[in-house]
Automatic annotation (TrEMBL):
InterPro entries registered for this protein in UniProt: HNH_nuc (IPR003615)
Keywords: Endonuclease, Hydrolase, Membrane, Nuclease, Transmembrane, Transmembrane helix
Organism, scientific name: Blautia faecicola
Transmembrane segments: 166-190
Gene3D superfamilies membership: 1.10.30.50
GO molecular function, one term: endonuclease activity
CDD domains: HNHc (cd00085)
Annotated protein name in UniProt: HNH endonuclease
Length: 210
């Protein structure tokens, strides 16, 4: 059996399970303890199933995942160093808003990747080695962060485009172009004496009649 390093988290407090209750710790022989209810150890998949079962019997919620899918403490700093702000502002890769305070978002949410093996395979195919891989990170404004929550949706595509500053320049040009067309059309309707204006007014009448 292939042994890998797993992180095993227990969430006893959620179930009113206190540390003082004897014997709970012996049921999960950890190799190293990260924090009070968090362990890392080398095990195979079948062992994880046994631990899950034990936790269930003790009415303790647990969460187990491979260590490579654990969130680390340095991804944010490294990412911000690699993508410095332009004129003191960062660009949200999802909506294009520029702001001074920005969050670094996991495009594929950490907990989902930890628990979904299909998603893990998908990430590997995309060349994303772990959840903190730069390819799984995106700048995200507060509003988009709230909106996105734990969903994936169309966000990988948004980030793929949004990370290029040129994309937002093009979006800006297209927006200006649309505004100019709308203003032009309004002027034509207000001044129907012109050929284009007359054409639009006639067209509008025909649509209305039909
Ligand atoms: Zn945004």
């Amino acid at each position: 059996m292939n042994k890998e390093i797993y992180v095993f988290e227990l969430h006893p407090r959620e179930y009113g399970f206190s540390k003082s209750k004897k014997g709970w710790e012996k049921k999960f022989p950890p190799l190293s303890r990260k924090s009070q209810f968090k362990y890392t150890f080398r095990a195979d998949k079948s062992m994880i199933s046994v631990y899950r079962q034990r936790a269930k019997q003790m009415h303790v919620d647990c969460h187990a995942y491979k260590r490579e899918y654990a969130r680390n403490n340095t991804y944010r700093k490294k990412f911000m160093e690699k993508h410095p702000p332009i004129a003191g502002r960062y660009r949200c890769w999802y909506c294009g808003k520029r702001c001074r305070n920005i969050t670094v978002d996991h495009i594929y949410p950490v907990k989902q990747v930890q628990t979904d093996e299909r998603l893990q395979r998908k990430l590997k195919r995309k060349g994303i080695r772990n959840v903190n891989d730069e390819k799984n990170l995106a700048f995200c404004c507060e509003k988009c962060n709230k909106k996105k929550g734990k969903t994936i949706g169309n966000y990988p595509r948004k980030a793929a485009f949004g990370k290029h500053e040129m994309y937002w320049v093009l979006v800006g040009i297209v927006r200006i172009f649309i505004i100019l067309i709308v203003i032009g059309l309004c002027l034509c309707f207000l001044k129907p004496n012109t050929a284009v204006g007359q054409f639009l007014v006639d067209l509008f009448r025909k649509i209305k009649i039909s």
